[in-house]
From TrEMBL:
GO terms for biological process: negative regulation of DNA-templated transcription; response to arsenic-containing substance. It comes from Mariniblastus fucicola. GO terms for molecular function: DNA binding. This is Arsenical resistance operon trans-acting repressor ArsD. InterPro entries: Arsenical-R_ArsD. It comes from the Bacteria. Pfam families: ArsD.
Length: 122
């Protein structure tokens, strides 16, 4: 399984889904990370406001911050390889980068041939 590291901008909490104005991308990304964990991946998420030592301990992250500032965040590393910067990736991309099968939910198909499914309720 892959080691997935997320280096976030300074956030109010570990997921960023608190406070009066929540970026709508953050709850979905937090859910996607939980999904990755459930698939057996080692997911590590670091918040610059709460864990600055993690940023300085990684030379690749430290160099990007020195060269570009916090605008390069979030950084996503998979097995120590930079795969994304400045944006939160989709679950599809996380699955692709980690080699994880992404099962799509399927909806049942009506077989009666009409929109009401034969109930006559429409």
């Amino acid at each position: 399984m892959s080691k997935v590291q997320i280096f976030d901008k300074p956030l109010c909490c570990s997921t960023g889904v608190c406070g009066p104005q929540v970026d709508p991308v953050l709850p979905q990304f937090a859910s996607d990370l939980e999904w990755l964990k459930s698939q057996g991946h080692d997911v590590q998420r670091f918040n610059l406001a709460q864990e600055p030592q993690a940023f300085t301990a990684n030379s690749q992250v430290q160099k990007l911050l020195a060269d570009e500032g916090v605008d390069c965040l979030p950084l996503i590393l998979i097995d120590d390889r930079l795969v994304s910067r400045s944006d939160y990736p989709s679950r599809d991309n996380l699955a692709l980068w980690t080699g994880t099968e992404l099962k799509k939910a399927s909806l049942p198909v009506a077989t009666d041939g009409d929109c009401c499914g034969g109930t006559g309720c429409c």
